[in-house]
């Protein structure tokens, strides 16, 4: 089986790191993967090169000479199917109509790549314009397709009903996402939950509470939805109570200047380190070295679908036995049972500080939670199991 794997931009830019384990595990179950970024923005990521053979990356831009040439040739070679595919997306609100029309040339280019590489299935991440491109290419080429919905792309509702009817299946990474999508028109029989996951368990055993100053890590892009400011405020509250911790922020983004200014105004410059973007290898080295004692993700709900799905960054920390604390937003509590007491209301610095203090002041509970982190990942969040389910549905 040869598949076209559509991303938003990966392996370009700084996002979609969570796709790496899925791509590399998927290769163990199919013959060939062609990774096609819908809109390859930013530089090619030097830290990612396929670890296995037969993974090809096609980095054609959204508009280029080959794309425009394909837009002229494909309708000549497949006139009836091209017309039917394009007509299917015409009845839309103006904004969505314009966004979807913009992908038509690259969808026609994708048809040429499907034929050139002998692709037998297309799988697109995100239910927005990247899956519009995949759907159009499928309708024109006759090759089956499927798509993965994450979070904001569900609530954008860009042809969800049409796409789910056309696709072989619609994959959701969380129960909440699937239930919301069904209410928005996704065909119930086509919807299934297949979570993202991690490659394996990296911990040799449960961790013990450190004897020196604990180090907290937050690995997330510096965006409003990640809620970094509440973690910084929580750190200031802990300091005022005489509790010393160190915080490492791994990630980059537009809020960095604002967060650096907040760090200074709170008097936390000596306690907070901005690491910038880290590759997955560099992040894992932090965990392996034992220099991270607690992972905190203070995500917030911004409304209109802007909230977390089930963050892979939490799973990665847990796979190393690192206890985690997060918020009651999005689908996070599908990963972290509320009964564990490690999720707090969002936008609440006091609750976040309280949860951190409670965990770091109880060595037995800390070790027990470390053990529980490993158990949770082993029992439901390994990428190997998710990929097997995906491939079985692609073959169906």
Short overview:
By secondary structure, this protein is of the alpha/beta class. The chain folds into two domains: 210 residues, Glycogen Phosphorylase B (Rossmann fold, 3-Layer(aba) Sandwich), CATH 3.40.50.2000; 166 residues, Glycogen Phosphorylase B (Rossmann fold). It is built from 16 helices and 13 strands.
What do you see in this structure?
Strand 11, helix 13 (312-319) and strand 12 (324-327) form a beta-alpha-beta unit. Helix 1 crosses helix 16, helix 5 packs across helix 6 and helix 10 crosses helix 14 (349-360). The longest helix has 18 residues, at 363-380. 43% of the residues lie in helices and 14% in strands. Strands 3-2-1-4-5-6-7 form a 7-stranded parallel β-sheet, sandwiched between helices. A 6-stranded parallel β-sheet has the order 10-9-8-11-12-13, sandwiched between helices. The protein has 2 domains: 2-197 and 382-395, Glycogen Phosphorylase B (Rossmann fold), CATH 3.40.50.2000; 215-380, Glycogen Phosphorylase B (Rossmann fold), CATH 3.40.50. With 396 residues, it is an alpha/beta fold.
CATH homology-level superfamily of the largest domain: Glycogen Phosphorylase B
Largest sheet: 7 strands, parallel
Q: Taking strands numbered 1, 2, ... along the chain, how are they ordered across the largest sheet?
A: 3-2-1-4-5-6-7
The CATH architecture of the largest domain would be 3-Layer(aba) Sandwich
Q: What is the strand content?
A: 5-15%
- SSE order: EHEEHHHHEHEHHEHEEHEHEHEHEEHHH
User: Could you name the CATH topology of the largest domain?
Assistant: Rossmann fold
């Amino acid at each position: 089986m040869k598949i076209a794997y559509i991303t938003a931009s990966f392996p370009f830019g700084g996002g979609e790191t969570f796709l790496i384990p899925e791509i590399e595990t998927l290769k163990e179950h199919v013959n060939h993967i062609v990774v096609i970024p819908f809109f390859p923005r930013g530089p090619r990521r030097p830290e990612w090169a396929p670890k296995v053979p037969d993974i090809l990356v096609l980095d054609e831009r959204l508009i280029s000479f080959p794309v425009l040439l394909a837009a002229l040739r494909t309708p000549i070679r497949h006139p009836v199917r091209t017309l039917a595919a394009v007509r299917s997306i015409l009845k839309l609100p103006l904004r969505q109509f314009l966004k979807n029309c913009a992908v038509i040339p690259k969808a026609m280019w994708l048809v040429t790549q499907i034929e050139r590489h002998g692709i037998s299935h297309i799988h697109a991440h995100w239910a927005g314009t990247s899956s519009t491109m995949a759907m159009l290419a499928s309708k024109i080429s006759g090759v089956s397709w499927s798509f993965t919905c994450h979070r904001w792309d569900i609530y954008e509702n860009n042809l969800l009903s049409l796409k789910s009817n056309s696709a072989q299946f619609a994959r959701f990474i969380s129960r909440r996402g699937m239930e919301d999508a069904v209410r928005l028109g996704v065909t119930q029989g086509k919807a299934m939950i297949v979570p993202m996951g991690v490659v394996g368990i990296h911990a040799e055993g449960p961790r013990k509470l450190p004897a020196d100053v604990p180090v907290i890590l937050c690995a997330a892009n510096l965006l409003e939805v990640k809620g970094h400011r509440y973690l910084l405020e929580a750190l200031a509250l802990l300091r005022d109570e005489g509790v010393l911790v160190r915080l490492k922020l791994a990630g980059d983004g537009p809020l960095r200047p604002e967060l650096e200014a907040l760090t200074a105004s709170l008097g936390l410059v000596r306690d907070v380190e901005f690491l910038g973007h880290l590759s997955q290898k560099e992040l894992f080295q932090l965990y392996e070295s034992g220099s991270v004692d607690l992972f905190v993700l203070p995500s917030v709900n911004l409304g209109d679908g802007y909230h977390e799905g089930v963050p892979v960054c939490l799973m990665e920390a847990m796979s190393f036995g690192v206890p985690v604390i997060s918020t009651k937003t999005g689908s996070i509590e599908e990963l972290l049972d509320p009964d564990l007491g490690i999720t707090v209301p969002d936008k609440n610095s006091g609750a976040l500080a309280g949860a951190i203090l409670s965990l770091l002041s109880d060595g037995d509970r800390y070790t027990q939670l470390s053990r529980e982190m490993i158990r949770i990942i082993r029992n439901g969040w390994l990428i190997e199991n998710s990929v097997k389910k995906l491939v079985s549905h692609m073959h169906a």
